[in-house]
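Contributing: when you submit paired examples, paste them exactly as shown. First protein:
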Amino acid sequence: MEERSHVSLAVSSIVRICCDKHGDGDWSGRVYTRYRETPIHFQNTGQLLDRLDRFYNWLGYPQESVVNRSFEKAPGRERNGEMAGVKRSQIRQKGEKVIVVNEEAMKKHQGDRATFVVRIQYRQNASWQGQVTWAEKDKTVPFRSALELLKLIDSTAVESEDSWDGGDE
């Protein structure tokens, strides 16, 4: 199922967030990327943001405009070019990223409560900017920060489309 095409990093960096449970004002679920056949699980939105940030650091796209500096190895950051949860056998050569899931297979994954397709275009001002699509409603809106992305996702817990109106493509 390996796909070795000339897919741009921008297209291959799109993730599918499947939100399965919402409780105590927080989501849990799965994230799917084109670089692994198994999902990345998250228990809360803090974990979701951390795991997405680690994925984009591993991918190297979009590049961070602000990089924290430290004399110590930052916990949870990429190790020797590895993405957390990706076995070394899934990485062909150091630095080479291989797409193993095609676009059609990505579309099959659905959250029990909601599904979002996230396109991070920039990581500037220590946050993320991009577009998010609420798959069940086929509504797309831009966001200017990770907090705004979380607010959009959270608004779907009560089926509120107010935040999603006016940004359709």
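Second protein:
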Amino acid sequence: GIERAFLRLTFWQTLLSLAGVFTGIVALYAALTESQAVREQTAASVWPRIQVLLFDNRDAAEEGYPLRVQFSNVGVGPALVGHLRLRIGSESVTSWGGVVAMAMDKDSPSGDSFAQETVSRRVIAPGETIDAFRSHSPAIADAVLRLLGERGAVLSYCYCSIFDQCWLHED
């Protein structure tokens, strides 16, 4: 009798132990799934979104810049811009000064007729806009826009969020 009671008790202990292990595995799976969802939601809450805006104001009557190229972060988190590459036809251009020189058929365009600002390897805060290129000169604006239109310009840039999620954009 004692041996039979002991076997019955061992059976129930084993069964309860297995139920406990199963419950623990289910709870661990639920916790891992929930933490993954929280990580994804947190990452999405700081996504940057970089837009490139080209302003062609050559026909506007008001004073200002006839040509302006802006990079704007319209997302909700900071954007770390990795690289920026502009290809015009088969040539890779490393600066807006190079674009102006190519457009104006000169090696060294006048520095006071346009301004440029570096965008590569820079953090752009949410809501921040950077004037990457601007020119007061309608002649430069005409030449640059003609060059970009005739030769087929392709602008590519990569930017990342604070969680190292990266996006590559090519226009």
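If you have annotations for the second protein, write them as plain sentences, like these:
Helices lie at 2-44, 96-104, 138-151.
Strands lie at 50-56, 67-73, 79-88, 91-93, 114-116, 122-124, 129-135, 153-160, 166-170.
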